[in-house]
Amino acid sequence: MNVIVCVKQVPDTAAEITPTGNGAAIDTQDLAWVVNPYDEYALEEALRIREREGGAVTAICMGSEGAATALRTAAAMGADDIVHLTDPAFAGADPHAAAAVLAAAIKGRDYDLIWCGKLAVDDAYGYVGAALAEALGLPHIAAVVRVEIAEGKVIARRETEAGTAVVRCPLPAVLTADKGLNEPRYPKAIDIMKAKRKEVQTMDAAAVGVSAETIGAARAATRIVKFELPPARGGGTVIEAPVAEAVARLVQALRDEAKVL
Amino acid sequence: MDFDLSEHDMLREVTRGFVQNEVKPLARRIDEEEQIPRELLEKMAEQGYFGLPFPEAVGGVGAGEIGYCVVLEEFARASASVTVMLSAHTSIGAMPIYLDGTEEQKRKYLPDLCSGNKIAAFALTEPGAGSDAAGISTAAVRDGDDFVLNGSKLYITNGDIADVICVFAATNKSRGVRGGITAFIIEGDMPGLSRGPKEKKMGIRGSGTCELFFKDLRVPKDNVIGRVGMGFLTAMKTLDVGRLSLGAACTGAAKEMIDLSIAHAAQRVQFGEPIIRKQGIQWMLADMAADAFAMESMTYRGAWMYDQGMKITRDAAIIKLFCSDALDRVVDKAVQIHGGMGYMRDYPIEMFYRDSRINRIFEGTNEVQRMVIAGSLTRQGRF
User: What is the third-level CATH fold of B121-229?
Assistant: First the structure.
């Protein structure tokens, strides 16, 4: 079973993010970059599928030059092939445009299954997996927490507010991984050393086979207007009163001020 | 000059995650129960942490001395006990076989040591021979195809769990260090070897330290490391590179102390504001940072020199001397910044304080380091 995993490099979730240039962008200087945690679940699941069924795992990442380190992490975890889609023309892409590039790069390849993360922790759109499936004409199941594969079919479990949904679809398909799917392995020290020497297949727009008007900022269906920090949290309110009265005042505050009831 | 360490970022990041999830939660238990759980050793072995500096050709990871120091730094941020177990195994336990062993010995022992299948120890110190290592009296007498060892070793790290022990014995007491000492590879199940109870220590309590006793222990002559009489040279070469790993461990611990102290001072409010705004505290943090920067810089410079094949004897001694002294200064300030909390076993600070003290004593006391440095200076006639 050949599996493709889409991987994105994102700022470390512990990093402090500051808007810059009047909110036009975020300051990327001194940021630590990591593999999107949801993509790690996807990659881990792909590796487990390979351990059970055989085949090859290919990790694909669309990103700037520095994103190659995300691919080396994928290689250290065990990915057989690593593909870096990088071109100035890809810049300014929203998930819609990113999916277009990924689809073009994936189209000609031999695969049975495509894994993505449920969402990327930087922009949290949660869109690329579904858009990629649409572009490739494949079924997709999002936010998978458990998956079984048998006889060319996928049986996936996903958590919903109403309970666990069991969804079936035929292969090939796109699945997006949610937290709880698995515990990603730590790359072994020797594999980390080997990953540094691993060949990265680098593809620019021409190699992928897309023209400038169909990608990047030109293809984006959305445009980021501004980055702002959330409003600073105020102090809490302490309600001091006999219990019955305090409860009544608390309920009123929750309803009228916090508006959560 | 290229001070770019980013080549080792992935190794550091992965190790940091491993340490965060697998070691930090156990650190206090390891200290209180004076034991490293077998499951942790197995996980570390699976990750390849037992063979870091050794080349792939002998079963190692090929991370070099620099990559090894990066990993030790990260482990030292959680547990000095685990770090000492690992560095005693790698830097001084397995190292003599790697440096001076025959091809056959390397083939026989290094793969198991690198995979963590077997744990190594280094046995030089005796009750009558600490700093005066030349005064060892464990004797090795040739008998046919074997040597027969009688004597004892003291304060041997990993002595309780080691499967492979490099033992230094006197084959010719009258010749002293110049030709009188031989290094042997002893296996943990050889008849005649017995181990004393674990010592009860001030710190690094999770690291097992004990006496080893040899009573008519037969070692085949094939287990002589290098040549008969060359043991002292092997010991000194080994201790040289071992001193680099001490620098790395001290650096990691220092950085952790600084980070915890900043976090504490930033939220501890006294006299109307977080104490981190008080200059007294700021100056302590600044001094800690100066020490940590120096420790980090010299450690990686030494590791780089070693990986380049340069001679490091004097500088390794400087690194060991400085970093052990510096860490003591850093942990002392960390306790003070934390105040009462720095004294309570609920927090890691007091453990780091107790764990730090041994660094000025083992791997050659700081007095021995000064002897080495001064010896080099007088021989060279200059810095």
Answer: Butyryl-CoA Dehydrogenase, subunit A; domain 2 (2.40.110)
Q: What are A195-241's pLDDT values in tens digits?
A: 999 999 999 999 999 887 777 777 778 888 888 888 887 777 788 88
What residues does CATH 2.40.110.10 cover in chain B? 121-229
pLDDT of residue B65 exceeding 90, the answer is yes
Question: Where in the sequence of chain B do the CATH 1.20.140.10 domains occur?
Answer: 233-380
Cis peptide before A172 (omega within 30 of 0): yes
Please measure the distance between the N-terminal and C-terminal CA atoms of chain B and give it in whole angstroms.
21
Query: Is any Cβ of chain A less than 8 angstroms from the Cβ of B66?
Result: no
Residues of chain B with CATH 1.10.540.10: 6-119
Whether the pLDDT of residue A76 is over 80: the answer is: yes
Burial class for B230, CB neighbours closer than 10 Å (0-12, 13-18, 19+): middle
Question: What's the complex ipTM?
Answer: 0.90
- Residues in chain A whose Cβ is within 8 Å of chain B: 34, 69, 72-73, 76, 186-190, 192-193, 195-196
The CATH number for B233-380, chosen from 3.40.50.970, 3.60.20.10, 2.30.42.10, 1.20.140.10, is 1.20.140.10
Whether residues A189 and B13 touch (CB distance < 8 A) is answered with: no
Query: Which CATH architecture best describes the domain B6-119?
Result: Orthogonal Bundle (1.10)
Is A186–B52 a contact, with Cβ atoms under 8 angstroms apart?
no
Look at the domain A3-219 and name its fold. Answer: Rossmann fold (3.40.50)
How large is the average pLDDT for residues B291-316? Answer: 97
pLDDT of residue A175: 98
- The burial class, CB within 10 Å (0-12 / 13-18 / 19+), for B323 is buried
**To the nearest 5 percent, what fractions of chain B are helix, strand and coil?**
60, 15, 25
With CB atoms and an 8 Å threshold, state whether A76 touches B17.
no
Q: Which residue intervals of chain A bear CATH 3.40.50.620?
A: 3-219
CB spacing of B7 vs A34 below 8 angstroms: no
Q: Of all helices (H) and strands (E), which one includes residue B379?
A: helix B366-380
pTM of the model: 0.91
Contact residues, chain A, for B61 at CB < 8 Å: 189-190, 193
Chain A residues touching residue B49 (CB < 8 angstroms):
189
Q: Determine, for residues A186 and B56 on separate chains, whether the beta-carbon distance falls below 8 Å.
A: no
The yes-or-no answer on residue B273 being catalytic is no
Cα–Cα distance for residue pair B158/B164, rounded to 1 Å? 10
How far apart (Å, rounded) are the C-alpha atoms in residues B203 and B358? 7
Q: Which residues of A touch B10 (CB under 8 A)?
A: 69, 72-73, 76, 187, 192, 195-196
pLDDT (0 to 100) of residue A222: 84
Give residue-wise pLDDT tens across range B140-151: 999 999 999 999
Nearest to B11 among A34, A69, A192 (CB): A192
For the segment A36-65, the average pLDDT, to the nearest whole number, is 97
User: What is the C-alpha separation between B59 and B183, in angstroms, rounded?
Assistant: 22
pLDDT category at A140 given cuts 50, 70, 90 is: very high
